[in-house]
Structures are given as C-alpha cells and as structure tokens.
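Lab notebook, bench 4. Still working through the backlog of constructs that have no structural model yet. Next entry is a single chain of 153 residues. Request: give me the structure tokens for it.
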Amino acid sequence: MKQIRGKMNGKGKSVAIVVSRWNELVTKELLAGSLEELESHGIANVTVVHVPGTWEIPVVVKKLLKSKSAPDGVIALGCILQGQTPHAKLLGGDVGGALMSLQVEFCKPVAWGILTPDTQDQALDRAGLKFGNKGREAALAVIEVVDALSQID
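Model written out:
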C-alpha cells in the first residue's frame, strides 16, 4: 500500500498570499503569521498582493494561478465580520465557493485564512491573541498540500 503524506518542507517552493485591507487590524496579524510560518519552513519565494476587501480575493488568486510564474500554492487572508444582515454569510459563501473552484481547476492548494467571526474581539482572538493565528494555520496547510501534490505522479 502506498501512502502519501505531505511534509513540512517548503524549500524550493513558491507561495502567494492575497490579503484583504478591510479590517487591517486583524488581517495584518494574519499576514504576519503566514509570513513567519512560510519563512520557518524554507519558503523564500513569497508574493503578497493586497486587495481592498475579501470580495476581491478570488479574481486575484485566479490571475496568480494563471500567470507564467504561478505559485505552487496560495493563501487567502481576510476577515468578514457578521452583521445584522445576511451580507457576511453571502460574501463568505461566494468567496469560499470561488476559492474552492480555483484550487480544483488549477490543482493547486488555496488555503482558507478568512475569518468569519461574530465580533471584532473574536477576530482578534483568532488572529493571534488567544486562539492561535489562522494565518499561520493556512500557511501550514499550503506547505503540507504542496508537498503531498508533488509526490503524486
């Protein structure tokens, strides 16, 4: 039986990060966590693209994946705060669906580092204050999947 398990070694790999400027108090912490993890696992080739909001992330991810110097994986970082209308749920669902379609279409991981908390305090907690940093977790996921994919003929 052949088993494939991605290793946490990013040497020689490239990763792009697309990060929303909306709610930058939170997203800058997610970005810092992602960059630290990528560096600590040997990924020196990193491109960061800043976009206005989470809605704009999928189109930039697609352009990156179609580019001549396409990265081995992409990390999407953002923060969609829940409100009194269904806007956040609709936005999260549409963006999540678009990113899932892109990773399947291009056979490259697109890690979900987009928070969908109810409050700003919950967002800050998930950006490193109390419950770990979801940007770090997204970076780890990309590193592992990129390596696993490289082992499949």
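Notes after review: Residues 56 and 124 are 22 Å apart (CA to CA). The two ends are 16 Å apart (CA to CA). Flag for follow-up if needed.
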